[in-house]
Amino acid sequence: MRLDKYIGHTTLLSRAESKKIIKKGVLVNGNIVKAPDFKIDELNDEVIVNEKKLIYQKYIYIMMNKPKGVISATEDSISRTVIDLLEEKDCIFEPFPVGRLDKDTEGLMLLTNDGNLGHQLTSPKKDVEKQYYVEVNGVLKVEHIPYLKEGIILEDGYKCKSAKLDILTSDVSKSTAYIYVTEGKFHQVKRMMKALGCEVTYLKRLSIGELVLDETLELGKYRYLTEQELKKLKN
User: Of the N and C termini of the chain, which has fewer Cβ atoms inside 10 Å?
Assistant: First the structure.
């Protein structure tokens, strides 16, 4: 790894600030190095900045409350992405969003650079349950619950995996509910609601497996996962 990138990983310094520090001289295994592109072994080499030994962190795990208008991607030429909401010190880890939320959907987004965990959480074979809060134009009925449980068929003929529906309110024109799904097809919740004769007007993801959205997080804000949250997620 480049020395300037390593320092950015292990401190609160930006890449530009790291380069300035390095040009003054940084100790690497007891030798003074002044080249930002000097290659080091991030797991074994000893790097000292301002008399402090730096400790390398390989992975980053972020919980974000995704706002509307932001897409679940690492980059886009038109729209803002969830990565654009991160500080530079976190972008250096090159995290990616685990799974997707539609542009107009809010709520829990997990970002990490741990590819193995990302695969475990998104693999269809793992059946990781995601909970959503949904508001619709239309009437959700108790009779709809078994349709979802058995696997509702979408407009293109695709049969969804078993899902759970917990109706909160329902009147002549509007309904609210929690819906639990274990897959993430394109616009899936919206299409499932459409198959029930309802139009989604608001959608928010509340949980991914054992990871629950921190409701104190404002829209567009994020924090690192706690050790307890990460342990639950990995289990």
Answer: C
